[in-house]
Amino acid sequence: MTPTLVRQHLPHSGARPRIDQWARARDWAEIQERMLVPLYEAVYERLEVGPSTRLLGLGCGSGLALLMAASRGASVTGLQAHAPERLALARERLSTEARGARAPGDARLTDGEPADIGRPAEAGYNLVTAFEPVGCVAGDSEGLAGALAAAVPLVGSGTPVVLAGWGPPERCATSSVLRVATKLADRLRGQGSWRPALRDDLEDVAERAGLRPDGSGRVACPFGYADTDNAVRGLLSTGFFDAAVAATDRVQVDKEVREALHPYARRDGTVWMPNVFRYLIARTA
Questions:
Q1: Half-sphere exposure of 222 (CA within 13 A, CB side)
Q2: How many domains does the chain divide into?
Q3: Is residue 265 part of a domain?
Q4: Do residues 244 and 185 touch, judged by C-beta distance below 8 A?
Q5: What GO biological process, any one, is recorded here (predicted)?
Q6: Model's pTM, two decimal places?
Q7: Which of 43, 194, 236, 260 could form a disulfide with 177 if both were Cys (CB 3.0 to 4.6 A apart)?
Q8: Cα gap 36→91, rounded to integer Å
Q9: 66 lies in some domain
């Protein structure tokens, strides 16, 4: 009788592969971040962001949302902790030379938390944004609630604070791909891996930060990529798959992500996944 060979993917026990953080940051800035442009536009349009806006962006990433606000004439300040590569790209994007005549004034970018910046000279900020989607990684809202609470002293009463998150999983085609992260990361008990968004994720964060909900909306944010390679690079730049890579290896994660993307590949090689994102407008007391 021929013995049956069983292939097992055991937790990775060797040296962890070194992640090229600069390459990841550029993949985020050049491929993935633009997928959220419809969300940024919808929020700015609803809140009439313009020359009178003094915006504080928490978790500003590589600065695309700040750049869009600045192009409307807003004065922008961005905070990004623990991601110096993304912050460096934000500085490139928001430099006076890069913006040219599109937006007046200088952008202010800080590597840190709200406590690391002071109150603006003219007045407090009159808009706070936290566009990094809430509720897609277990425990990701804990630090955000604290950051929001720390930002409250920098703004006036009734100031709008915008939170963003994934829409219902059944409305987000990308959910089926992100489930790969959870499946592979089970060996690490799902630590740091993706989870489906819950209905009240944004409201829960607002409540913990002492904010009062004052409206919400949904925005279509399809994820479109030039090809499968482009899609894999963009999705892995989110960090959702880090725990999966730690539990298995990059080759296995790459393979399974490609398989999960197959239903969304078009005949011309492009990849298209319709998604819905949600935003909540809350106000300070």
A1: 8
A2: 1
A3: no
A4: yes
A5: methylation
A6: 0.88
A7: 260
A8: 19
A9: yes
Query: Is position 206 within any domain?
Result: yes
Name residue, tokens 């962890």: 16
Give backbone dihedrals phi and psi of 241, rounded to 5 degrees, phi first: -100, 5
Structure tokens at 24: 């990841």
CATH number at residue 118: 3.40.50.150
Ordered mean pLDDT values, 10 residues apiece, the chain (285 residues): 40 57 95 97 98 95 96 94 94 75 69 79 83 76 85 92 94 93 69 69 93 97 98 94 88 96 98 97 95
**CA distances, 245 to each of 32, 136, 171, 249 (Å):** 19, 17, 27, 5
Give the separation between CA 1 and CA 20, rounded to whole angstroms.
Answer: 48
Structural domain that includes position 68: 21-171+195-222+274-283
